[in-house]
Specification:
Length: about 425
């Protein structure tokens, strides 16, 4: 007798984020009357690798054991795709949940990938550049048979950047005996990276704002924006909002928050963060408690940091008309119900932050062909794909009388289901 998939899920992957991801999937699958065999198959990742490896500090007197993971949720659609995150609390359940979300994200915007995610349980802020490089190269060697341009293509995520991707590419290339730029995306342009990758998630997210605003009857010019998180996603989302004529009145990060009712000068704030490492101490705005951000009187709210920040405890305080989710899983299921009942229009993470993986797809295609596009071509194609996906999801939302998150997941799950049924079962 085979093991009950739900029992296996609880045993192997149990974590709050994974439970949330599976509950979300089950809720939508039940709404779709999804075939029970397909539903059972998609609840758990197809492949998962857990590794431990030694890590030596710069002082040479300590060798620590580090935990790392790489999870591939779905192999049906083509190679898998997903970031590598470095954080002190990375675990298998979190990585598995994010791999599942990446599957839906790729399917929603029509990319030929399944979802994957990787992680290493370290705090990169506490390490020197040399130490981060050693961790990266050893982690790459531990998963090297798991990744490849036709197998699984990593990218940056929380705690990693283009330099980390360059080290992954170099380690992989050294091992296979030739340069292989298509093994990762999000690399420096000198190594085959695309020129618009860093700002792609924030820019792609805000490219949906005009359509979302039109749908809810919101005037963009002068609309007030509050942004939680001021990393790559938050910074470039803020810049894109400002360029559309919005007023970015508040931003927060782990160091603190800034508020200016007349609108922050986003470029000045970005320059200050580049110089100091955080928002705290910026002289040309009022300091604010980050916990107050979600209750601000504004038209547009962008959670662009970590998951689980809009909860049942604070969702009723949200006054924004539109929520653009730049982070992965920023809204809990209970909070979703409250936002929907209060008439807040939510552009969900699986659609809203898909700009990053879309431009990663562009980079992968260019690396395979050794033919590179201009920044204007990349931005135009990004906007086209994102807005087409938004329009299709909105049509499903209206037709099926469901919220945008449910509609987006229905679109993604339908595409994956069609592919699975077309391929059948082997043997």
């Amino acid at each position: 007798m085979s093991e009950n998939p739900k029992d296996a899920t609880e045993l192997e992957w149990d974590s709050p984020l994974y439970r949330e991801a599976v509950a979300q999937f089950d809720r939508v699958a039940d709404r779709m009357s999804l075939d029970s065999n397909i539903q059972s198959r998609l609840r758990t990742p197809q492949r998962a690798l857990s590794v431990t490896f030694p890590f030596r500090r710069d002082e040479y007197d300590t060798v620590e054991t580090v935990f790392g993971y790489r999870v591939q949720h779905l192999l049906t659609m083509g190679p898998t795709k997903g970031g590598i995150r470095y954080a002190h609390d990375v675990n298998l359940g979190e990585v598995a949940a994010l791999a599942m979300l990446m599957t839906w994200k790729c399917a929603i915007v029509g990319l030929p990938f399944g979802g994957a995610k990787g992680g290493v349980r370290i705090d990169p802020r506490a390490l020197s550049r040399a130490e981060v490089q050693r961790v990266t190269r050893r982690y790459t060697m531990e998963i090297i048979n798991f990744i490849g341009p036709d197998q699984d293509i990593p990218a940056p995520d929380l705690g990693t950047d283009e330099h980390v991707m360059g080290w992954v590419m170099d380690t992989y290339s050294t091992h296979v005996g030739h340069s292989e730029p298509a093994v990762v995306t999000g690399k420096p342009p000198a190594l085959g990276g695309t020129v618009a990758r860093r700002e792609a998630t924030g820019r792609g997210l805000v490219s949906l704002l005009p359509a979302a605003a039109t749908h809810v009857g919101l005037k963009i010019d002068g609309a007030r924006v509050a942004i939680q998180g001021f990393g790559n996603v938050g910074q470039f989302a803020a810049l894109a909002c400002e360029q559309l004529g919005c007023k970015v009145i508040a931003v927060t990060d782990v160091t603190g928050g800034l508020f200016d009712e007349s609108g922050l000068d986003v470029e000045k704030v970005m320059a200050f963060v580049e110089e100091t490492g955080g928002l705290v101490g910026f002289p040309d705005a009022d300091a604010m408690d980050p916990a107050e951000l979600f209750a601000l009187d504004c038209e547009i709210l962008i959670p662009a940091a970590i998951g689980g920040v809009i909860t049942a405890a604070n969702a009723a305080d949200v006054k924004a008309k539109v929520v653009l989710e730049g982070a992965n899983g920023p809204t809990t299921g209970a909070a979703d119900d409250i936002l929907n009942s209060n008439g807040v229009f939510v552009v969900p993470d699986v659609l809203g932050n898909a700009g990053g993986v879309t431009v990663s797809y562009f980079e992968w295609v260019q690396d395979l062909q050794n033919y590179f596009w201009s920044e204007s071509e990349i931005v135009a194609r990004l906007r086209e794909i994102m807005n087409r996906a938004f329009s299709e999801v909105l049509d499903i939302s209206i037709r099926e009388k469901v919220d945008m998150r449910t509609a987006a997941l229905m679109k993604g799950i339908w595409r994956v289901t069609d592919a699975k049924l077309a391929r059948g079962v082997y043997p």
